[in-house]
């Protein structure tokens, strides 16, 4: 059995956190990437007459 000095334990733990941070960032990026078309459709609908709850335009 080989004893690993404590500073190397710290480096290994930090690398694990970096990997988790990278995976978390990738998850958020994919979530925003797939949500963007829905956000764009919603924004486009708000410009149609009568669609917005505060719009005074009548339906055609």
UniProtKB/TrEMBL annotation:
Record-given protein name: Uncharacterized protein
Keywords: Membrane, Transmembrane, Transmembrane helix
Residues that span the membrane, as ranges: 16-35
């Amino acid at each position: 059995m080989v004893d690993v000095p404590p500073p190397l334990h710290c480096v290994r733990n930090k690398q694990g956190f970096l990997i988790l941070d990278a995976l978390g960032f990738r998850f958020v990026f994919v979530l925003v990437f797939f949500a963007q078309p829905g956000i764009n459709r919603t924004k486009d609908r708000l410009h149609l007459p009568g669609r917005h709850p505060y719009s005074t335009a009548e339906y055609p």
